[in-house]
């Protein structure tokens, strides 16, 4: 099921349209930014705006890897490049001390190559993403900020308790 990527007049809606066209064009990423790690999922920087206003990442999951449940604090658009990406959204508006658990899943999708979705932002900002294919999953993620530097939260599903984290940028070739 495709989620409406937002009204075309919104920034995420416009980003989604461009990303959908790029994926449909058959353009390819450099192989170096599609290589998974056996330890954890990776976010390779494809572009970070000099003023930190937006960033584009190649997000790479090895088979079986997943993120914790987390938020973003900025809008995000995801397009699938390779493999299948499972995304589960959770209900809640993250406050400073977390949420009351157990967290309630509100929507679950498995995204395929070429699919584009507005994943994050506003009151729909908490999700968990995993590789749902038998090959590594690669997504192109665009965020309304420098996602490698923004302090955000992970959540414990049972208690709703949150922890602050910053997701580091990976270095291609290392
Ligand atoms: Fe996310």
Poorly predicted residue ranges: none
Structural class: mainly beta
The molecules bound to the chains, other than polymers, are:
fe (ii) ion
CATH topology (fold) name: Jelly Rolls
First-last Cα distance? 36 Å
What fraction of residues sit in β-strands? 35-45%
Nearest-integer average pLDDT: 91
DSSP helical segment count? 1
Largest sheet: 5 strands, antiparallel
Helix content: under 10%
Principal-axis shape equals: globular
Secondary-structure arrangement, i.e. CATH architecture: Sandwich
Output the helix-strand order. Answer: HEEEEEEEEEEE
Could you give the count of β-strands? 11
Strand order of the largest sheet: 1-2-9-4-7
The CATH C-level class name: Mainly Beta
What's the structural blueprint in terms of helices and strands?
Layout: H1 11-24, E1 42-48, E2 55-61, E3 69-70, E4 76-82, E5 85-90, E6 105-111, E7 116-120, E8 127-131, E9 137-143, E10 152-155, E11 162-165
Antiparallel strand pairs: 1-2, 2-9, 3-10, 4-7, 4-9, 5-6, 5-8, 10-11
